[in-house]
Amino acid sequence: AKPGLSHRRWLAGASPSDDNFLDLSTLVQRLKEQLPAQPAVGAPISGEVVAKVTETLQNAKLNPREWRQHAIFRRGRYTRNIVGYSPNQFVALLLCWERGQQSPIHDHSGAHCFIKMLSGQLREVRFAWTAEGCAGAELKEEPATMDAAIPAQSVGFMHDSLGLHRIENPSHDEVAISLHIYSPPFRECLVFPPTGAAPRTAPMVSIFSPETAWNANGQREAEVASEPASTSLQDFCSTLATLKTAEDMNHAVLDALVPAEMTAMEWASYASPAHFSEFHPVQHIIHCDDDFSVVMTCWSPGQKVPPHTVGRGRKMWMKVMHGKLTHQEYAPGLFPWESDVERKKELAEGSASIMEECSVRMHDLTNFSDSEPAVSVQVFSPPLTQFTFHSEMGTERRCLPRLVEGNSEGRSVSARSFTRTAGRWYLSFGGLRGLLNEEFSRPDISDGAISALLCKAVFNPEEWRERLAALTIDRSESPATPKYVLLAEEKAYSVVLTFWGNSSEEQCVKRERKTGRSWTLILEGELEERAFAQGEHGPVLLRSSTLKEDSLSFLSDKLPGLQELAGGAWVERSHESDTPCVSLHVYHPTLEEE
After folding, report:
1. Would you place residue 17 in the very low, low, confident or very high pLDDT band (cuts 50, 70, 90)?
2. Per-residue b/e over 288-327, b at no fewer than 16 CB within 10 Å?
3. What are phi and psi of 185, to 5 degrees?
4. Measured in Å, how far apart are the chain's first and last C-alpha atoms?
5. Which has more confidence, 206 or 293?
6. What global pTM score does this model have?
7. Are 179 and 154 in contact (CB under 8 A)?
8. Among 235, 300, 236, 222, which Cα is nearest to 268's?
């Protein structure tokens, strides 16, 4: 070892369960497994189901960087936004409550209702039923407070057999965000005046949908009586894997998309009334693999997708399944709102197109109808899972959710998918290990695939903070000494979490020998990184960089100019900011304790 190289010691501590750090789609999949597949409206409470789902929701630690994308607040009332769906089984909605907002007294149309707090507090006040079916007096029990900061008090449950209730945000300082699971989904509920007068019916879903006639199972009645589609959307998605090597992929995909129609179950799964928002078009992924992503968009009347591009070299195909849309391309310019619309194209119901210039030309899509909704399917290759929208308010990056889970084939994603996919992925450390295991088991390990994986992964801050909070720390050590947590140690690689403290008296510095390949991802804070080699007259600085939050550094003794320095190079990382820094390191081959 070179003089001055410090030693690494893994710190022990209880590790939180990786199984509890979930993305929304994984939570939807778990709920699918735990809730009755075909729950009956008005069915009595199942104590076993309530206990199991309550435990799952209490333990689930969702990434705030994911669910905050779906948070929409309005001063006049609380809002509901769909984040998960299983037809005929349940719907998951994100509810956003401004300070002091409350719901009316209401029932749940015979459904089981679970509430998980994600941020802030909500207070539940319950009311008795009267013999006439109206809201009676407030129950004498103490109003329950659900609190996101206290796991044991973060989940509530309600059923019509327990009475009626009103939900309110008691805070005049903080907003609240809650996740609501309704099983089975319902289209309307009863709202009760506090005076005890007769209730009125209130819609729980958009009044706009491709068909106004939906049966009790959430299916379009027109589709139920019709013959099955010759090519379903699911069949089309399965066919995509065979088209990536087609000589003329543009027309091969288009030819497969033209006859594709949605079955009754696909309408219920992907474009039910619950999928239409009053705020913006609901876009969600229904299929994604290493080469293609398929996106369903549900448009209420008058809604528009803001100007955007899909990235140079990315192909897009589109079919309008219902209604009519207008595609507009903007003339080249600095900002779309300062450019003229150069081309406009009407997309009629049933039309399918190859959008060849959408990758580089700014464009938007609009449903100009004031009464008719629209439904469209877009296919992207390489896959796209995130849109970047441009407006006078700035740039907005919106990741596309997977509202409906259950098709494992549709989520066959490897580490190499990240090199081609436009978008970010919400991972736990356990999910990262699974993708690294898959990549490092290949005979041709790709540095680019691992770099893309780390660049596009979004980890839950609560997970790394829990890991660090559980450490057993030697109090005799200087606060400026880096602290290490070994997250994974496999035959081919290791993953290390490092906490860089702050001290007014000394700089937090770590040096390590440079062998093999290493990746450094900054999760929080800022870090200086310098690569040195031992020259004839002393250390030679090879590279210096400042790594800020979400930035990635890759070092390898196989990089040009470093081959001859293998075994004679080292890396120095330092931190001197007033705020702490947390970094994630992947080493290949595995890095042993020094």
Report:
1. low
2. bbbbbbbbbbbbbbebbbbbbbbeeebbbbbbbbbbbbbb
3. -65, 150
4. 10
5. 293
6. 0.87
7. no
8. 222
